[in-house]
Amino acid sequence: MIGVFGGTFDPVHFGHLRPLLEVRQALALDEVRLIPCFIPPHRDAPGASAEQRLAMLQLAASETPGFVVDPRELQRGGPSYMVDTLLSLRDEQGADQALCLILGVDAFAALDSWHQWQDLIALAHIVVMQRPGGQLPKTGAVAELMEHAQTLDVSELQQRAAGRVYFQSVTQLDVSATAIREQLVHGRDVRFLMPDSVRHYIETQGLYKS
Ligand code: ATP
Fold it and tell me: Of 100, 115, 175, 207, which residue is the least packed, with the fewest Cβ within 10 Å?
């Protein structure tokens, strides 16, 4: 089973990495692909360049077995739609390989705003990790998807290639890239929020100063 974790990673931080490691262990994923987006469809342009976000992710992932940085969205260019990414992974991995799209609950709650969102569940399972402040929708299209597709049985994820929604509890870390960038603008020390290698990279590149 392969985990797929997309993000802006502007910058990557422990709020990404620790929950992801816990998901990898709980689901016995063979690997987790960390996929930085090129142009995020839902937000302002990132503060760091695509190359810098990729370099930070590579520094962070290199410390953890099973974490693999996958630059396909940067190579593809244009707006980074997850449906295109899953289609290309499905093409490569074949119809039988179980794929798990891993999302924080905030991202999952807004899933119906994603490009061709209804195709996602046919291409992969969706694994949702809680995040401080994140709320699951009680009504609407995403709530309906949960009703139809949720499983409590992790072995179902292994038995099928796609189509199930699964919730994984993870250590709650109230860390966001937005809060980190704000601290850096004010010249604060951001250690213990991300790997030291990433913090050093930010310092040497002079990132997020304004
Ligand atoms: P920003 O603050 O710039 O919006 P972010 O910290 O939310 O960034 P992203 O790169 O946008 O990070 O997030 C990628 C994915 O990681 C999303 O699915 C998001 O829900 C998840 N995520 C980010 N931070 C956390 C966290 N602290 N706990 C759990 N999931 C998280």
Answer: 115
